[in-house]
Amino acid sequence: MAGSTDVAALEESFRKFAIYGDTKATGQEMTGKNWAKLCKECKVMDGKGVTGTDVDIVFSKVKGKTARVIGYEEFKKALEELAPKRFKGKSKEEAYESICQLVAGKEPTNVGVTKATTGGAVDRLTDTTKYTGSHKERFDESGKGKGKSGRENIVDTSGYVGAYKNAGTYDAKVKK
């Protein structure tokens, strides 16, 4: 059915979106979240003819009853389902061709990803050498945190009063 559209480019787009955001993904199966991302970024979803609800419904329709993902063949069926809605005036084949051209060759973008800033205020607030009082006790000389021992007062359960000079000498005295 996809005549002039480069099938390899379409499959490559499927793989790129399938592995997006999942380190364990192989690129053989796509989740509903990634399907919605593909539809949104490739402008398949236009807000009028094809909405987010339509995209979710088509995904549920083409996947297996108990499956949570779709393969490449189901992906092509899903595009066929959405094509007439997205391109209303065209025939089924022309609409499918047009929707394939929208998707082919595209890859996911990192839109809206928050980047860490290292402005003056952040540097000043995270500089452990400037800490005073009890906060100073939470870090060692190198500025690395002490963990739990830096946050809590660790109770001495040795039986000796704090700061007692001869702590630990009782057993030696009794054995003599």
Automatic annotation (TrEMBL):
It holds the Pfam family p25-alpha. GO terms for biological process: microtubule bundle formation; microtubule polymerization; positive regulation of protein polymerization. Its main location: cytoplasm. It is found in: Cytoplasm, Cytoskeleton. Keywords: Cytoplasm, Cytoskeleton, Microtubule. One of its GO terms (cellular component) is perinuclear region of cytoplasm. Belongs to the TPPP family. PANTHER family: P25 ALPHA-RELATED (PTHR12932), TUBULIN POLYMERIZATION-PROMOTING PROTEIN FAMILY MEMBER 3 (PTHR12932:SF16). This is Tubulin polymerization-promoting protein family member 3. The gene is TPPP3.
